[in-house]
Amino acid sequence: MSSISDGTSNGSDSKKFKVEDAPPSRVLHIRKLPNEATETEVIALGLPFGKVTNILTLKGKNQAFLEMGTEEAAITMVNYYTAMTPHVRNAPVIIQYSTHKELKTDSAGNQRAQAVLQAVSAAQGGGMPTSGSSASESALTPAPSPVLRIIIDNMFYPVTLDVLQQIFSKFGTVMKIITFTKNNQFQALLQYSDPVNAQQAKLALDGQNIYNACCTLRIDFSKLVNLNVKYNNDKSRDYTRPELPAGDGQPGVDPSVAAAFSKDSSSLLGKIPGALSPLSAAAAAAAAAGRVALGHSGAGGVLLASNLNEEMVTPQSLFTLFGVYGDVQRVKILYNKKDSALIQMADANQAQLAMSHLNGQKMYNKIIRVTLSKHQTVQLPREGLDDQGLTKDFTNSPLHRFKKPGSKNFQNIFPPSATLHLSNIPEDITEDDLRVLFSNAGGTVKAFKFFQDHKMALLQMTSVEEAIQCLIDLHNYNMGKNHHLRVSFSKSTI
């Protein structure tokens, strides 16, 4: 069977390196599976990210191949599991792109796996409301469901999606959250990657208070086994799909409520053993106001970018591009490997955001790879040591987009796109001026549209790569009279 050729990568380092560097493919190679791992458990790794279309298990080698319905689903899955190590039966497993573009399995030798896949597909099939739910529960969750239903009693203070994520992520990988009000009570559905994590969270948190003497958690297992999230905003979030739209008119928490809440510093998040480190009410209010400030304790905010164009890349260009997704603190291009760089973001959330949006994008004609680094910080060179300008400290840069609490920039984070949003345009600048400016940066301007006040505009390049190049070159460009052009990616098309 041709697919098994990937499996030999366990042996030699050179072959292993080749597999890790394989380009994106909808076929994924899963290694280091425990002996007793079932096909269902392997399929369950892929289900949150989209349809699983084929599976091949290599029992003797503790490996498997999983074929996703689309390459996008596979890329989202690999990006997610690069940051959050996947586990099967409490053992960490490795997931990489396979060198194969599709799985060819002979039905005779792989009948059991195909039968499991069919059962799971039938259970998932077309979102059937009730008929499929019991089948999918029995196929996928021998333990209780990975989805918890959470009701909050005695809610004196606002409890937000970010607060729930911070509390519940202490017990495992939170994949999706939906919040809503039912019978005048704030409720949430929260999905873990593994039912075991849901069980642990329920045991530890049911009946506990989030804040002193109020906001009591009432937790049950949901009958659902998979949540369908359409929008990423303050009401719902799919952490496996950061590219989802925000939806229409999603307001944040009333700023006056947040401000009043932040003054009450005596109200701490209750100390739940093994779950919550005490958070000040100010931090909770900041989360309530829509800030991405609640970092994952223990997870660093340092990224490793590789396969860079070493002739072209500079700390400044990386600062500008990664700065679209967070406040870059320091950048170090590696002295002995100048196609790689360490980028320190303000926190782990921003690092996660930048990684999920920029991994696999083209910068200076090369597809860049972005992963989480094991480093906690980027070291500056010793004083007096010349490192040829490869390390730069941006801690006090005036160009940080997210340093203002509650800034509108938090609501305008979009994946790289061919359409750019321009703002801070001087009154006397015309459409032609901007077309010439962006054409000179390399590429062709396909469409242009001024907003009514002419201070903002949308400008569409012919490709995402051209738009990335223009953003790097022209964000903060001095247009005269101290007007510095602001450039970001747009979700719109012209």
How is the secondary structure organized here?
Blueprint: H1 13-20, E1 27-31, H2 39-46, E2 52-58, E3 63-68, H3 71-83, E4 87-88, E5 91-92, E6 94-97, H4 111-124, H5 133-140, E7 147-153, H6 161-168, E8 174-182, E9 185-192, H7 195-205, E10 209-211, E11 214-221, E12 236-238, H8 255-263, H9 281-288, E13 302-306, H10 315-322, E14 328-333, E15 341-345, H11 348-358, E16 362-363, E17 366-367, E18 369-372, E19 391-393, E20 419-423, H12 431-440, E21 445-450, E22 457-461, H13 464-474, E23 486-489
Antiparallel strand pairs: 1-3, 1-6, 2-3, 4-5, 7-9, 7-11, 8-9, 8-12, 10-11, 13-15, 13-18, 14-15, 14-19, 16-17, 20-22, 20-23, 21-22
Helix pairs in contact: 4-5, 8-9, 10-13
Explain what you see:
By secondary structure, the chain is an alpha+beta fold. The protein is built from 13 helices and 23 strands. It has a six-stranded antiparallel sheet. A hairpin with a 2-residue loop joins β8 and β9. α4 crosses α5. The longest helix is centred in the N-terminal third of the chain and has 14 residues, at 111-124. The radius of gyration is 24 Å and the shape is globular. The termini are far apart.
- Low-confidence runs (pLDDT<50, min 5 residues)? 1-5, 7-19, 123-143, 249-299
Helix/strand structural class? alpha+beta
Q: How many beta strands in the DSSP annotation?
A: 23
- How far apart lie the N and C ends? 48 Å
Q: What is the number of helical segments per DSSP (H or I, 4+ residues)?
A: 13
Mean pLDDT: 78
Question: Biggest sheet: strands, sense, closure?
Answer: 6 strands, antiparallel
| Strand residues, percent | 15-25%
Principal-axes geometry comes out as globular
- Order the strands across the largest sheet as they lie in space: 10-11-7-9-8-12
Radius of gyration: 24 Å
Helix content: 25-40%
